[in-house]
Amino acid sequence: MSLGGPGTCEATDAFGSAIAGAISRGVTVVVAAGNNTDNTANYSPSSCPGVITVSSVGITGKRAFYSNYGSYVSIAGPGGGIYANDDPTQTTTPDAGFVWSTLNDGTTAPGNPIYGEMAGTSQATPHVAGVVALMIGAVKAAGQPALTPLQIQEALISSARVFPVSEGVAFGSGVVDANAAVQAALSPTMTALPSTLVSSTPVTVAGNAGTSLIYSITVPANATNLTIRTIGGTGDVSLYAKVGVPVAPNGSNADFSSAKPNTNNEAIVQTTPVTGTWYVRVTGVKTFANVQLTASYTAH
Question: What is the average pLDDT across 75-99?
């Protein structure tokens, strides 16, 4: 989807309910983050629950200066940087910086077929949608069960290429990598659905170094004192959490993290948590066993 406007998307509004309906029928919805150099949380449908929101990088892999950003962004795609080295202080606009595509020079009627240059998150988004199509095709060709939209989003996030420089703002887990995404789609480990956490009910987790376990908990409106904690057992884990978008196994896109060295005692505390689905990752730094994971909140 290459459209948008101001305003936060709610699950019950026109965009939100239409997208929720599509997702419930197995449709993966990929949405442009927008070109306002602003937090995409302020725009719709890029802030709708369940969508894969795409930011834009230029030819060097750095954030395109125009691209929206924020914690709702899942992944970045090549959208065209316009300026040399993706630096808006430059005055040159090399052709190599744009995304080139087949166009038509007609204005009111079909004209001549031409090539034309473009830039924007509207160019980054179809790159990601195309990769999603490759993932779906590979899974089907392998005779594996079709992936849910959430599983596809998990695989994209987990397989993204690391940004070449720190973006300084939340900008997604990295740049889409077609080959890695297809391989992730075929991996049961990379597409494991989150286990549901019940407030104040501990679960026991264990795994090897590098093992990453994903969970989710729905935080209701007006809840307070959300605490996500690991404690006890043996080994060493790191704890990551993100609202609305699955958190990467290495925590690269996490909104909150706790990664103290040589301990399982990790905690993330939010006095006034955001309403919605929180995704939680427990990742093994060393082999770990009998670790208790608990998420709890006070409902009002």
Answer: 74
Compute the Cα dihedral for 242, 245, 248, 252 and give only its sign: negative
In this structure, the answer to whether residues 109 and 251 fall within a common structural domain is no
**Whole-angstrom distance, CA of residue 150 vs CA of residue 245:** 9
Q: Which amino acid is at 101?
A: S
Mean pLDDT (whole number) for 243-262: 95
Q: Is residue 148 part of a domain?
A: yes
**How wide is the angle at C-alpha 158 spanned by C-alphas 28 and 191, nearest 5°?**
60
Q: Please tell me the distance from the alpha carbon of residue 75 to that of residue 178, in angstroms, as a whole number.
A: 12
Contact 183, 161 (CB under 8 A): no
* Of the residues 152, 167, 185, the one at which a domain ends: 185
Per-residue pLDDT tens digits for 171-213: 999 999 999 999 999 999 999 999 999 999 999 999 999 999 9
pLDDT of 83 = 65
- Show the beta-strand stretches assigned E in the chain: 5-6, 30-32, 43-44, 52-57, 73-78, 99-104, 113-118, 195-196, 203-207, 212-219, 224-231, 234-243, 256-258, 266-270, 276-298
CB 54 within 8 A of CB 76: yes
Measured CA distances, 215 to 130, 186, 264, 281 (Å)? 28, 20, 17, 6
Predicted TM-score (pTM) of the model is 0.91
State the CATH number of the domain containing residue 158.
3.40.50.200
**Per-residue pLDDT for 90 more than 80?**
no
Do 117 and 231 reside in the same domain of the chain? no
